[in-house]
Amino acid sequence: MSSQSPESIARIAKTPASVQAGEKTYVLSTANGDLVEKSFDGGDWSLPNLLAKVKPNAAVAYVKGAPQRRIISINSDGVLQDYTINARGKGSAGTLSSANISPRPDSKVTAVYSNGHYHIFHQAPDGQLIHTSSDGNTWKTESHLSNASPIEGTALGSFATQDHKLHVGYQHQDSYLHIQHYDSGTWTDKALPNGNVDGVVDTLRIINQAEGDWLAIYQTQAGEVVIANAEEKKVLGTNDADGNFKPTSSAECGRVYNFHGGVHHWY
After folding, report:
1. I need a surface site. Which of 21, 110, 157, 206 has the fewest CB within 10 A?
2. Does residue 237 sit within a domain?
């Protein structure tokens, strides 16, 4: 994400999962049990691309690997599964379902690719956050993030720094957004500055801007679209029940949000 209007940010925030590849932003939906992908080039949306059948309204996540996009979702049996999307937009099933990992029914998922491995985070039936990884073939559970205290069904977002340090964001029981940070074999937990949330976060993106610098974009269950970093927090507006974006007065008049080179400029 480099330069975005409040409307385009809100469009991304309301989707279960999105990823940017080249000049296009790809988004996923799982309504009616259909895993559907659409792309947005800044001007027009593509026609929907039906990829697979999934659990209706199932959690879903994108991860950009090498060289293709991979989708993580929960199948109709409640088990994590993956699909690889080729350059023609065709999906093929991966090997994740063979690991037989069953998240809690309301679990969200997030995934990141780093140092030749895929890393998936979900919420277990007991509420703990779980880290699973793969080299692209074999999947294994790496760790339970036991010092995290997420709400039930917490929204999740993740990223990895250039030196392959993993980060996963979630909503803590104190209602703040927290980040779990993995370094030298240990997970540490901290509340994000300006991470206080009015309500429950429904979708969450955590973007790494530079070392020690982050950007959170989220939508609450009430439809409020928020962008926050360590300096400030802005409410851009609200996505209503029909998906229409209603900006706040501070987000009107063609405001543009530029995120590039580790620096964020809010005009």
Report:
1. 21
2. no
